[in-house]
Design a protein that fits this description.
- The chain has 149 residues and is α+β, with helices and mostly antiparallel strands.
- It contains four helices and five strands; from the N terminus they run E-H-H-E-E-E-H-E-H.
- Helix 1 packs across helix 2.
- The chain is globular, with a radius of gyration of 15 Å.
- This is GNAT family N-acetyltransferase.
- One of its GO terms (molecular function) is acyltransferase activity, transferring groups other than amino-acyl groups.
Length: 149
């Protein structure tokens, strides 16, 4: 990669650019496009300070983002972060942008005195799994439980 991406934390002024990528991210996971919903979701997360979104730029063009949600470890009595979303525009893939966003997420975790970062990816998303492992993430297990309310 010739140019390292510039990465910064999103503000409410970035809703439109993040929502566009967020909509594409959701479509990657077989969800229908919903720009109105994406815009409302991202706007609310930023307005209520319920997530931290890091945006990667190349030549002032947004090419990727990651979204972190705060959680806590009771046993460790510290904040942790759930890296819930990571998306790179197709034309920018394979250029180190995802690794740069992962590094920025780790730096954010350290700056907030967090115990760890965690994430989950699809079992068939082999490319993402390889990326995470290449960047020092450890696969813990394949178990995940949820209940619909």
């Amino acid at each position: 990669m010739n140019t390292a991406p510039a990465i910064r934390q999103a503000t409410i002024n970035d809703v439109a650019i993040v929502a566009k990528m967020f909509d594409a991210y959701r479509m990657f996971y077989q969800q229908p496009s919903d720009m109105k919903g994406a815009t409302e979701f991202i706007s609310e997360r930023l307005r209520l300070k319920e997530s931290v979104i890091l945006i990667a730029f190349i030549n002032e063009h947004a090419v990727g983002f990651t979204q972190l949600f705060p959680i806590f470890t009771s046993v460790g009595m510290q904040r942790t972060w759930l890296l819930n979303d990571l998306y790179i525009e197709p034309v920018a893939r394979g250029k180190g942008i995802a690794s740069a966003l992962l590094d920025a997420a780790k730096a954010h975790g350290k700056s907030t005195n967090s115990k760890w970062l965690m994430l989950q990816t699809g079992a068939t998303n082999v490319a993402a799994q390889a990326l995470y492992e290449k960047n020092g993430w450890r696969k813990e297990n394949d178990l995940f439980y949820s209940i619909s309310l």
